[in-house]
Amino acid sequence: MGLLTVSEKKGLEFKSDEVTSTNSQTEENIVYDTKDLNLWYGKDHALKNINLSIYEKEVTAIIGPSGCGKSTYIKTLNRMVQLVPIVRISGDIRYRGRNILDKSFQVEDLRTRVGMVFQKPNPFPKSIYDNVAYGPRIHGIRNKKILDEIVERSLRGAAIWDEVKDRLTENAYGLSGGQQQRLCIARCLAIEPDVILMDEPTSALDPKSTLKVEELIQELKKDYSIIIVTHNMQQAARISDKTAFFLNGEVVEFDHTDTIFSNPSDKRTEDYITGRFG
Ligand SMILES: Nc1ncnc2c1ncn2[C@@H]1O[C@H](COP(=O)(O)OP(=O)(O)OP(=O)(O)O)[C@@H](O)[C@H]1O
């Protein structure tokens, strides 16, 4: 048992062969399907009739002005938003065909399949090694050799291995902000997720670290589905395949990123991307 990898430990709920590796857009490779989603914080109607199909192994950017519901939407995808007591939700969010809003859906299943990276890097006050090994250990992996392999693979996957390989036992707080963010991405990769949610992952980083994380996202989409909230329209244009433009809690337009930025169909999208508001 001690020799199982994280994906084996996750059990039979989601078998990897359910996940196709092609990029063709069929129902089978929709990773998240949101149907008629509405969300209220008390009386504040924050998400209005959201319908979005997100495909695997793509980068999907969520853009829009402050307060339009971007973070709220991304936090519905791992049910984090339900930690807010006044939240009320209606509609469906299907992850790999199963409605995650259904009471019978175990949130733990979701958290092992969907990782999240936040605006501000949030490493644990532990060593670099222990940050990455944390998730696998929770899954019961104790074998040192396997943990070493996972830690190295995850840090390599997050393009930070060469910078930290000789200081794995040092506290993660000693890393720069950009390095901490890539460490947090490595911590996500260690649980072998299917999807990575990113809520403005570069907004606290300098331009050089931002570029590194953007390059990393391009690499990661070969293996993962990535949904990223960004304020930075150039960033959305550079790194995403699809873009959803949110305004006042609604999705105004959702299309291929090239189309959104070169030939949007809605005047409000055009006004936003040309800087007329927001
Ligand atoms: N915990 C909360 N309690 C009450 N209202 C909230 C809460 N979080 C968000 N809201 C409200 O929901 C709406 C959408 O907020 P959200 O943070 O999702 O927008 P956003 O597009 O991510 O904004 P920003 O770009 O500024 O981060 C706003 O009116 C906000 O005030």
TrEMBL record:
Part of the ABC transporter complex PstSACB involved in phosphate import. Responsible for energy coupling to the transport system. It comes from Halalkalibacter nanhaiisediminis. Pfam families: ABC_tran. CDD domains: ABC_PstB_phosphate_transporter. This is Phosphate ABC transporter ATP-binding protein (PhoT family). The keyword Cytoplasm does not apply. The keyword Cytoplasm does not apply. Keywords: ATP-binding, Cell membrane, Membrane, Nucleotide-binding, Phosphate transport, Translocase, Transport. Residues 32-273 form the ABC transporter domain. One of its GO terms (cellular component) is plasma membrane. It is found in: Cell inner membrane. It comes from the Bacteria. It is a peripheral membrane protein. Its main location: membrane. InterPro entries: AAA+_ATPase, ABC_transporter-like_ATP-bd, ABC_transporter-like_CS, P-loop_NTPase, PstB-like. GO terms for molecular function: ATP binding; ATP hydrolysis activity; phosphate transmembrane transporter activity. One of its GO terms (biological process) is phosphate ion transmembrane transport. SMART domains: AAA (SM00382).
